[in-house]
Amino acid sequence: MKNTVLSFQRAKKDGKKLTMLTAYDYSTAKLIDSTGINSILVGDSLGNVVLGYDDTVSVTLDDMIHHGKAVCRGAKNALVIVDMPFMSYQISVEQALENAGRLMKETHCQAVKLEGGKSVCPQIKAMVEAGIPVCAHLGLTPQHINAFGGFKVQGRTEAAAKQLIEDAKAVQEAGAFAVVLEAIPAELAQLITKQLDIPTIGIGAGNQTDGQVLVYADLLGLFSDFTPKFVKRYANIGELISGAVKNYIDDVATQKFPTPENEYHIDDTIIEKLY
Ligand code: KIV
């Protein structure tokens, strides 16, 4: 059954945990979608995982559209959310609306995600009024990496925790249908989850949020540049890939590949005339 912003609301009411994973291409999206996952996020973690940047700051709107299109072709039942990249929504409400509109029209996603609290509420309100569902993102918001001075847990002081609670209420009030809480204390995430009517989706925020999200390459052991404490690795596909590629290299060197069943043939009478 197709997941929608309404089924997200229903899940929160019914106390059913929501599941979300990132994907950046058609084949991975198709595989993940077939598992019955609730949502696929075309995260701007694309910058780290696929494009090899140190952070998400360099990711462009065109990057997100290119990969968002591929994911949407592969996802039939998951709710597809595409990230608005750095500086595609901060300048003005008009800029945010125009770029969110492009993401929806060109990728066929069902929602967009942006980072920030009170400061981006005018943007969230305008998008929601225009019919664009918005997922907010609070806590360790990677687009603010330079302002934070690194990947640091957020909301640990009383003032920072109060600010996060206020921001969470503000994005809900502005019309966000869900909010991602990244790298914040589990106790604080639990409190925010209790105080909101919209679902909270945690990543490094404990197990009391309404759902969880992970970067699929972290879960599968495909990305090893850095692995945050909050990641659980469910498989080591990276090792499988290296092993398979080494076997291929050996087989080519020793002429074990290709074998006759991988070959095409021509009639002997024709080939004789070519000598
Ligand atoms: O870009 C991303 O993958 C994200 C998730 C980590 C929530 O924003």
From TrEMBL:
Binds 1 Mg(2+) ion per subunit. It catalyses: (6R)-5,10-methylene-5,6,7,8-tetrahydrofolate + 3-methyl-2-oxobutanoate + H2O = 2-dehydropantoate + (6S)-5,6,7,8-tetrahydrofolate. Pfam families: Pantoate_transf. Its cofactor is Mg(2+). 3-methyl-2-oxobutanoate binds at D44, S45, D83, K113. GO terms for molecular function: 3-methyl-2-oxobutanoate hydroxymethyltransferase activity; magnesium ion binding; methyltransferase activity. Pathway: Cofactor biosynthesis; (R)-pantothenate biosynthesis; (R)-pantoate from 3-methyl-2-oxobutanoate: step 1/2. The keyword Metal-binding applies. It is an enzyme of class 2 (transferase). It is found in: Cytoplasm. Mg(2+) binds at D44, D83, E115. Keywords: Cytoplasm, Magnesium, Metal-binding, Methyltransferase, Pantothenate biosynthesis, Transferase. Its EC number is 2.1.2.11. It comes from the Bacteria. One of its GO terms (cellular component) is cytoplasm. Catalyzes the reversible reaction in which hydroxymethyl group from 5,10-methylenetetrahydrofolate is transferred onto alpha-ketoisovalerate to form ketopantoate. NCBIfam families: panB, PRK00311.1. Homodecamer; pentamer of dimers. HAMAP family: PanB. This is 3-methyl-2-oxobutanoate hydroxymethyltransferase. The lineage of its organism: Bacteria, Bacillati, Bacillota, Bacilli, Lactobacillales. The gene is panB.
